[in-house]
Design a protein that fits this description.
Length: about 400
Amino acid sequence: MSGRVNDECMRTAPRVELSVEDRDWLEKASRSRIEAVRLSERALIVLLAADGHTNREIGVSLGITEEKAARWRGRFLAQGRAGIERDAPGRGRKPAYPPEIVSMVVRRTTQQKPEAATHWSRRVMARATELSPSTIGRIWRQHGLKPHLSRTFKVSNDPHFAEKLEDIAGLYLNAPEHALVFLLRRTERSEIAKGRSLCAKRSAGGRWQKSQVQALDRTQPGLPMKKGRASTFTHDDVRHGTTTLFAALNVADGTVIGACQARHRHIEWLKFLRLLEAQTPADRDLHLILDNSATHKHPKVKAWLAKHPRFHLHFTPTSASWLNMVERFFRDLTTRRLRRGVFRSLPELIEAITASLASYNAHPTPFVWTATASDILAKVKRARRKLHTPR
């Protein structure tokens, strides 16, 4: 008799003791509509075990086996939350293909090109490897590969890249006291044709210019958006002239000082500098971040700057306009107002740009720079090593 009692005691499920934090987490997981169903079930098993229920009672209550209830009770006691969040190693569906096949697909995708093509598609890779297109798709998803996508990229070859980077990043992260930082830049005709826009910058937080903005009218009215169809506009257009937008983005508060002018010579650049002079507090230094255009270095510009010592120019490295945060503002202006716009005259375009600037300044949003110069330099060094590695 005593042996039977001892046998039953040894089969008694271990008691589960929960801290306040564990119970809160388990209760949220058991009620969650976004967590995996299996995690919600496991959390409920542990909660019932903590309330003193046996494995058999838990199984009957949840419609599962007694062994399953005992397994997750024991896993929680041994490993805590981590024990029920993940399945044990080796469980689940086994891979359909060995690692060698997966490695071969990844290697061919990243290091080789298909015959008479620039990049792989699922069907082309499937024919080359004698696998199914769906298998190729799963392997690519698992490894984050998207051969159909590409991006423009260039590493700056500026010999003073590090010094300029540290200078500009320092202005973003630690702006000088009693000074304003502005970002400035302008777009070229070819960039506008692609829907791009440029900018410039000044101290206290700003940028400057988008040149050759074209007043484009469509040859036919577009079709409105409806269910299952995007709005449309014609591929060709009628041009009614161009304007140049000079804009200075204030880094501190996100406001923009802007003006449209007919051209983008040093004469117009000086007009915009005088506008900044007039619209900013006279007791503040102005730090302008801008590109290396010859317009900014004209002798008359240098002479004007010499007479106005509160202006300080900071030039971005060559092929590194991404350092100028005003690019982000001009992208928004292009995508939200210009690219789909219909402008039947140049004054109509200028009026639309002016209205957009006023609307933006009514609710300005500063752009926040977070990357340090050392982080960017480390990435640039890795890119240069990769570019100079024999292929």
